[in-house]
Write a structure and sequence with these properties.
- Helices cover 55% and strands 12% of the residues.
- By secondary structure, it is mostly helical.
- It has a domain at 18-113: Winged helix-like DNA-binding domain superfamily/Winged helix DNA-binding domain (Arc Repressor Mutant, subunit A, Orthogonal Bundle).
- It has a 3-stranded antiparallel beta sheet with strand order 4-5-6. The chain has a two-stranded antiparallel ribbon with strand order 1-2. Strands 3-7 form a two-stranded antiparallel sheet.
- α2 crosses α4 and α3 (50-57) packs across α4 (61-73).
- The chain is globular, with a radius of gyration of 18 Å.
- The mean pLDDT is 90.
């Protein structure tokens, strides 16, 4: 059974990569550059650094640095110094980058295929895939990077606002919807 699931997931990933690659060619982007851009669009302020992109993609720092330079030269991202710690540089997606992602992620054909499933089947598939991901991450020792709202450090205070129990900083609603490299269960 695991071999069947592997073959299905691998084939799905391959078809997705092909469609994403075709979309990226319109801007002259390589898949790794698209992956970095997408990651930066879904991560929070603790996770929008070159190091975090490198960890998330599991690539070398050189490969990621070159990819980020391309994204910056194409005005899809920009750099912003941290207000409190000038040693930290945050990577932000520009409006042009957000527009490209809105048109290409998820790919249109993928969305059409998913929408052919009932809402119940879509929910069931999401739960199953999340369980597979969680189990696989645990097995390979890569459990970081999860949605902030599900993290053990995400806490609510008396004023019904959120804060990070790790950094002791207030979190916006937007922060809680994004992925974080400090995620823990």
């Amino acid at each position: 059974m695991s071999e069947d699931l592997f073959n299905i997931i691998e084939r799905l990933a391959n078809v997705l990569r092909q469609e994403v690659r075709a979309e990226g060619q319109s801007l002259g982007l390589q898949p790794v550059q698209q992956e970095a851009l997408y990651y930066l669009s879904i991560c929070n302020r603790y996770s929008d650094t070159t190091l975090a992109v490198t960890e998330y993609l599991g690539l070398t720092k050189g490969t990621v640095s070159q990819s980020l330079k391309v994204l910056e030269n194409k005005t899809l991202i920009y750099k912003e110094k941290d207000k409190d710690d000038l040693r930290i540089t945050h990577l932000k997606v520009t409006e042009e980058g957000k527009l490209f992602l809105a048109e290409t992620c998820p790919p249109k054909k993928f969305t059409e295929a998913i929408e052919q499933l009932s809402e119940t089947k879509q929910s069931q598939a999401a739960v199953l895939m999340q369980d597979i991901l969680k189990n696989y991450q645990k097995a390979v020792g890569r459990t970081a990077f999860g949605v902030c709202k599900n993290c053990k450090y995400n806490q609510k205070n008396e004023a019904d606002s959120f804060y990070c129990g790790l950094t002791k900083e207030v979190l916006s609603i937007d922060d809680t919807q994004l992925i974080c490299r400090e995620y823990a269960t």
